[in-house]
Amino acid sequence: MDLIGYGAFFLTTALIFAIISLGLNLQWGLTGLFNVGVAGFVAIGAYTSALMTTPDDPTRLGGFGLPILIGWAGAMAVSGIAAAITGFATLRLRSDYLAITTFGVSVVVQLVALNAQKLTGGAFGVGFIPRPFAGLAETPLLFNLSNLAIVAVVTLLAYLALEHLSRSPWGRVLKALREDERAAISLGKSARFYRVQAFAVGGALMGLAGAVQAHFTGFIAPDNYAPMLTFQVWVMLIVGGSGSNLGAVVGSVLVWAIWAGSGALTATLFPPEQQARAASLQIVAIGVMLCVILLFRPNGLFGNLTYRRRFGLKARKPS
Length: 319
Fold this sequence. Notes:
Radius of gyration: 20 Å
Shape: globular
Largest sheet: none
Helix content: over 70%
Distance between the termini: 48 Å
Number of strands: 0
Order of helices and strands: HHHHHHHHHHHHHH
């Protein structure tokens, strides 16, 4: 029973990362926007939902005690607006310049969360965030399975929505802008308009994931949204295959399995006084896995599938 409960907890965390990866895949895989500020938009969603749904707290603003679903909707709205504003101001930049700018936005968000104590609780974070099925907390197995079911449904809905969007005329315009911007503009498509839209929708999904994670853990703090979070999500997308929504989900589960497994291994092999240093081996494990996968699958695990879909090619039948 303990193993099943841990498996449910593991999959819940992995699927939350999958929602973030799906948002990044829309921005980078479908549109070619190099966003290195993922952690910032996740943080915006987490804090928005937390402030909307927590009970009243005299030490900070917010604490409206609203239902969880309204908090999630508010997280998507605020994160999407923040992403749209960021996109409108920065999407004229390309590649490395856009990456530097979005990274700066992420750092600003983390610093605001750390220092705006009257709004975010500062370094102490925000606690008492309502959790779905909180009444089942005394039964860990049932509680974890219930949360897994909710997160799985949210992930499935996000996946199906993005699959539909990628095949829609809107999605085809994004692909055209990524492949040949001049040709798309010559057909009367506004590159900036569509890119801002893609950046906003991707940011909204990241905010939703942050809100779901906040209510799953019940507590958030600025340290949760360090640049390491952005690194993890990028590795998940690259391993799964940029441009593939299925790859974003599978890559998230696989990379999180390596991350959690290496953490458990170092905790077993090293004494407590050395575990802080040994934690860096988790990054080494992820780096080695990334190198191995890219050696054999340069486009990621589902990169070839994405390529065939992109150009309308069918897989060859074995002769």
